[in-house]
Design brief:
The protein has 171 residues and is of the alpha/beta class. The chain has three helices and nine strands. It has one domain: 3-Layer(aba) Sandwich (Rossmann fold). It is globular, with a radius of gyration of 15 Å. Bound molecules: inosinic acid (IMP) and magnesium ion. The site of magnesium ion (MG) has 4 residues, from strand 5.
Length: 171
């Protein structure tokens, strides 16, 4: 597979620092829980937390909807959240990418059922053109075109997550 750089390491770092500062301002005096959506959001979550200077916790949830380059449309819960990890807390769901919007829409509803103090969404990449359900993330690092991207946590059939940049597959 030929992979070209879409967003390099320096630009990722700079933009993630801005997002961390914005979140810090929005939650002044409050504690937040970064709830990382496995596996794709691991790199983003770690780097975001390293730039975040407020009080925070981390948690993980795992869902899957993809096989190869195509969304299957059905979301499977692989690692659930516990009610005590959500109830009365300010949850920020952290995702690698919003595509159709199904995953995030599902997760926001899932979290809301556990009575959080608040719930917001934060995403590294936003492919707005591909949306099939009405969904907008609260924090978006980079809006991107309709490209299949890999690296910095994102995979193609579990490969390429280890690339330190966001790349796209050249056809
Ligand atoms: P959605 O439910 O269609 O919004 O899909 C979201 C999930 O699909 C993301 O969390 C990714 O795991 C995966 N995904 C969507 N687009 C891409 C891509 O370009 N590269 C790798 N994974 C993707
Ligand atoms: Mg994902």
């Amino acid at each position: 597979m030929n992979i070209d750089v879409l967003i390099n390491e320096k630009d990722l770092e700079k933009r993630i620092e801005e997002i961390a500062e914005q979140i810090k301002k929005d939650y002044e005096g409050e504690e937040v829980v970064f709830c990382s959506v496995l596996k794709g959001a691991i790199f983003f979550t770690v780097d975001l937390m390293k730039k975040y200077t407020g009080d925070c916790e981390v948690n993980f949830v795992r869902v899957s909807s993809y096989q190869g380059e195509n969304s299957t449309g059905t979301i499977t819960m692989k690692i659930p959240l516990k009610k005590e990890d959500v109830e009365n807390k300010n949850i920020i769901l952290v995702e690698d990418i919003v595509d159709t919007g199904r995953t995030f829409k599902y997760l926001v509803e899932y979290v809301k059922e556990m009575n959080p103090k608040s719930v917001k969404t934060c995403v590294l990449l936003d492919k707005k053109a591909r949306r099939v359900v009405d969904f907008n993330a609260d924090y978006v690092a980079f809006p991107i075109d309709d490209l299949f991207v890999v690296g910095y946590g994102l995979d193609y059939d579990e490969k390429y997550r280890n690339l330190p940049f966001v790349g796209y597959v050249r056809k």
